[in-house]
Amino acid sequence: MQYHESMIDLVGDTPLVKLNRVTEGLAPTVLAKVEYFNPGGSVKDRIALRMIEAAERSGELKPGGTIVEPTSGNTGVGLAMVAQQKGYKCVFVCPDKVSTDKINVLRAYGAEVVVCPTAVDPEHPDSYYNVSDRLVRETPGAWKPDQYSNPNNPLSHYESTGPELWQQTDGRITHFVAGVGTGGTISGTGRYLKEASDGRVKVIGADPEGSVYSGGSGRPYLIEGVGEDFWPTAYDASVADEIIAVSDKDAFQMTRRLAREEGLLVGGSCGMAVVAALRAAESLGPDDVVVVLLPDSGRGYLSKIFNDDWMADYGFLADEGSTGAVADVL
Ligand code: PMP
């Protein structure tokens, strides 16, 4: 019989797929690491598993304990799935701007979701930050993973994503491109690849225009899951050789092309990372092997990026100029 003991065994070992159409006219081989093949549907399953197992070993998370994290996104899904399998409770805190679909995914795994008002100051007792801190203090057996500062976030990539890419490319990878959110993916994977290649592999970060990693002020943008308005400790600034800033419009148009031209229904941060990878590939040769990591699936963005009306409202449809409405609407 061929089977896995549990869904947890399916985390990692995701496939590499060559991009054939969006790369037309470019010399290098461009390969996508498709992270939606993880059981929770995103790259974040890797860090969820590593953070939880490290907390079990250190005794911070005890049998029957409760995981409390301010997240509504992919990290929440990864934590909820691993917690459910291991018998922990989960409480996620998220702002009220988060879509009900995302909240319902977390509840479907059995997690509790506390929704906080967006329109209050961070210092307000009902703010997203204060509510999660209070829940950690007041819940017996509570543990907060804190993906922004937890060293097991980058370590999970150093131990899984990096070695997988080195083996899958038979050591021929020359460039690694990833979006930067907490910075865990690029810092851990990039560090491994640099060490394995004696510094030969170049590491390129992709960042939304406006985010601090590419020198922005932290101004708003629409790409989800990437970019920051502060510098998290999970990000090791010494790893990336270059950071490429990508606009919302370019990222979302590429996201739509990936579905239509490559059969890859992926999220907006994936389109952003591919734009950066193709820009880097323009100056490279036929022996170069560029790997771009695609964090999640496009299913979570059907009413936005894959919705023509939504795209048109922002002026993101092909050949339309930006209306400049992004800042107003946000
Ligand atoms: N894309 C998406 C959709 C994400 O959820 C995340 C995680 N925040 C990232 C990219 C960036 O990954 P990292 O946090 O490892 O930098």
Present the secondary structure layout.
Layout: E1 16-18, E2 29-34, H1 44-58, E3 66-69, H2 74-86, E4 89-95, H3 100-108, E5 112-116, H4 128-138, E6 142-143, H5 152-168, E7 175-179, H6 184-196, E8 202-208, E9 242-246, H7 248-262, H8 268-281, E10 289-294, H9 308-313, H10 325-329
Parallel strand pairs: 2-10, 3-4, 3-6, 4-5, 7-8, 7-10, 8-9
Antiparallel strand pairs: 1-2
Helix pairs in contact: 1-2, 1-5, 5-6, 7-8
Bound molecules: 4'-deoxy-4'-aminopyridoxal-5'-phosphate.
The site of 4'-deoxy-4'-aminopyridoxal-5'-phosphate has 16 residues, from helix 6.
From the structure above, extract its key features.
about 325 residues, alpha/beta, 10 helices, about 15% strand, disordered C terminus
What is the gist of this entry?
The chain has 330 residues and is of the alpha/beta class. It is built from 10 helices and 10 strands.
Descriptive notes:
The protein has 330 residues and is an alpha/beta fold. It has helices at residues 44-58, 74-86, 100-108, 128-138, 152-168, 184-196, 248-262, 268-281, 308-313, 325-329, and strands at 16-18, 29-34, 66-69, 89-95, 112-116, 142-143, 175-179, 202-208, 242-246, 289-294. The chain has a six-stranded mixed beta sheet. α1 (44-58) crosses α2, α1 (44-58) crosses α5 (152-168) and α7 packs across α8 (268-281). The longest helix has 17 residues, at 152-168. The radius of gyration is 19 Å and the shape is globular. Bound molecules: 4'-deoxy-4'-aminopyridoxal-5'-phosphate. 4'-deoxy-4'-aminopyridoxal-5'-phosphate binds next to α6.
